[in-house]
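Subject: complex prediction, re-run

Hi both,

The earlier run crashed halfway through, so I resubmitted it with identical inputs.
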Amino acid sequence: MARVYFEHVTKRFGKVLALDDFHLEVTDQEFLVLVGPSGCGKSTALRLLAGLESITEGSIYIGDRKVNHVPSKDRDIAMVFQSYALYPHMTVFDNIAFGLRLRKTPKEEIKKRVTQAAELLGVAPLLTRKPGQLSGGQRQRVAVARAIVREPAVFLLDEPLSNLDAKLRVNTRAEISKLHHRLGTTFIYVTHDQVEAMTMATRIAVMNEGIIQQVGTPQELYERPGNIFVAGFIGSPSMNLFEVELKSDDGRLLLDSGPFQIGVPADRADELARCARKHLVLGVRPENIHDAAFQPAGISAAPLTAKVEVTELMGNEVFLHLTAGDYRFLARVDPRTNARADQDLSLVVDTDRMHVFDPESELALCQDDAGSAPGESGAAATPSEDVAASRAEGNSAR
Amino acid sequence: MSAVPDSSRSLAAVLEEPVVPEKLSERIARRVARGPLHAVIIVVCLIWMVPWFGLLVSSFRPKADIASTGWWTAFNPPFQFTLQNYADVLAAQGLARGFLNSLIIAVPATLITMFVAALAAYAFSWMRIPGRNLLFLVVVGLLVVPIQMTLIPVLRIFAGLNLTGTFLGVWLAHTAYGLPFAIFLLRNFFVALPKDLLESAFLEGASHFKAFFRIVLPLSVPSLAALGIFQFLWLWNDLLVALVYLGGSRQVAPLTVSISNLVSSFGSEWHLLTAAAFVSMILPLIVFFALQRYFVQGILAGAVKG
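This time it finished cleanly. Structure:
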């Protein structure tokens, strides 16, 4: 068990900047997920921690020990690779026992620990088989068993569910979470799938273009995205974004997108007026747009009319693909909706849950309420003050 | 979400597909389409095989018959075949000693080459060495250096070290001449091994030495076998290097040198020469047929990333 600390780490591959001032603390026993699109640097961060790549600038600590120049084998970490990296010429037993044998563990001890790990992961009946005789899910379990058998201080997982089918992925997600609780070890998990991040993490670091965009609990990231990138990346379906103009109509503030206007509630008007710019980006999650006929009680509703393009019944909800002017957006509405394709539909937007961003910096505005922009707020979602968060220069991609 | 297909599932899906029996007309059309190709292959094989077969038949015919009639007449009565030719070349002409010397030269030199090349190929593939690619380029560049250029300088060095006429000298020479290609072949195979396997081994606590012996070597058996066949066949058939560094002494001369001497001394003794040719061919044939599966794999080794 150990904390992991990335201290202003930078990694360059030739002229390509893979990680830019990566500054993050992972506390002991935490399940931290690094999430972001392909090429955002998340796997590079993991490989730097594993010692599989060298650091260009900065330092990495495991526990209190600086490990910049410590070989991989001496870092007391284990890693599950996306490809599982099982040795095809060895049996499952030999695969799991590989690390223990290299450490000259006594034979009886190896047998005991391999059996325990195999039983924990449900691969005990497969110990005499070779990887080629296993299914994808079984291989994944063997890879995890091989990682846990050494009882490492830090457990790294690099997209371990990517090669599994959708159903198996859901089951394995839950099992990895259970494993984390049972082992009480620090887990650092890399994925590009925000659903995996949201369901498993105690904390998430969202990355883009080598920069941490925001760090926080899944709830914090979902409810208070610090910038447009995080707002669009976290949540499925993703947040609807509209370019709006802040206007005043008889002393009342309006967000005018062209085809529709949304009145700013009184309790948010002051904040918006205080930090307001004329042009803004409005973010509304699909579940905060309701069919007006089934409007939940007690919300601050702003009306909106849009044309229904497609309806998708999901059972417990309906996805409406809507258009209003040049905007296409999505709403998750009550399954009792009478919306039909090609019809105009009256909707309401829950203005208490809308997000407003500065289009230039792409950071969330009025952070006291609408979300904390990393870097400006002192990284609200991180456990220690110096940990970080990200650059607030607004260089995230939309 | 990544969409790397699970190979076992794809295979299962393929197996579950209903097998549609091929219609007779389709089968005939397929065979007719391939007919010319098969005909060409058969003709080429025959062109290659006829002289070889003639040599084989001649090696079992009495000296007088070889001198008077063609080999194809051997199948007309009376069928006169003899093993005397083989007895003569092996015993009287010293080919048995040559056979043994060839083994003494080829087996250790092949093993040494394979071992050294495997170590070098591992380093070129998986170790962080400054100028690694340049060094590899230099090694591969040595492939184009003609062996004849090296004979005199190396012979002078060997003479100074008293290595001329010794098996050790010829082992070293063969290893050095074989290494550029061997390293090239193995490096291309090693570098195509999944990176994750090696990285996983390092994380588990393996040193380069252990990763080499416990991961890379067991996974590289096909390429090593292919290299072994190539190298063994080259060494077995080598005349030049043996002649230059070992000399013509019967005590150390390999089969090729012995046969060469035989040609000089008994150029007209066809019954001996044909038998000697077959003695020299037996072992390579056995090696080739025993390991032909690896041979084909090895030719493709490193050609495509698997």
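The radius of gyration of chain A is 24 Å.

- K.
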